[in-house]
Here is the input.
Amino acid sequence: MSKLLIVGLPFFPHKYQYLVDSYLDIGIDVRVLLNSDFDSEYKENSEKFITYAGKSKLKRMVNYISIVSRFKPKNIDCYDYSILSIFYIFVAKLLGIRTRYWLIGWELVGDYQNTNQSILFNNAIVFFKKHLSRLCLYLSDVVYAKEHHHIKSIESINRKLLRKTILIYNCVPVEKHNPRFLERLSNKRDFLYANAVIAKRNVIDLLKDFEQLKEKGINFTSSIYGFNSIENNAYSKRGEHYSRKALEYYYKAHLEDMVDVHGFVRNIKEVMVKYKFFLLPADIVLANYALLEAMSIGLVPIVYPGDGYEEIVQDGVNGIVAKNRDMLTALERALKLSDDEYTMFSNNAHKTIRNKFSIELQSSVSNFSPLV
Here is the structure.
């Protein structure tokens, strides 16, 4: 039986539960070393496959060595959330363990938007992390890129690295039929934004669009989930400065009557079912996990023409594209859809995810690097 150890994750939301279940279903013995302290939310899984590495970097290193020596994995999947990725991969290399390196965001070019420290310390950490992430590309056996810009970055670093790089998108579980058929649209709120409130997702611009809708006297209801500055007990904190700035604008624009704001929640899917439209005014659209999850249950997407959008959203077919980043016009257009038009968009959104981004489909992709 193949043995797989997953490292680097700072949290364990439902999307990773799907991943682990998929591995278990095909007979792979899997363990997860989680970069956090014990969490009662995962108590059942803790007894099965989760080990807690703690929040101290020294403690994580010690626990990594410990689980590797006890579990003796043949394969290690390293998710690049941590500056310790280089340590995980280097140790695995020394021990002859095959490693697969999963890129997360902008780490290859320097991800300044998600840091929370002073500017000087911030820049030093991001610079250091960028070069360690690039070194991981060379040391790992396989590199998984989830976004188009990853491929461009790797190509600029060393074209030869593309030989071991696989472009693989996020995927989600999808029901055979669109569950939205079972619900009354009249009971739904209008717009939902559910992602981290960070600069590359242009949330302040979205708030300005909501402000203009209000000034025009247009009635709507909306929610924004993902403010670190409100609450975050589900994910590692990202971009707190931008989150605070966006929240300040929200109160300055007096949007409380039409838009409510929230922190992070563990299972956003339970929130999604209450809404009609899913908003993603982001620089990168492909393949945002929350977007896929929302479309899989029939929410109609409204997106910026960000990187990769055309792979997921077809304007006027399964969603609305805010052309020239004109989200205000897109929102007005959405509010004018008839029930029949909305139902068509919703069915097509669900069908898109079922046919292109379902877990069942991705598990059969032939170029997925096998375990040993």
The two ends are 9 Å apart (CA to CA).
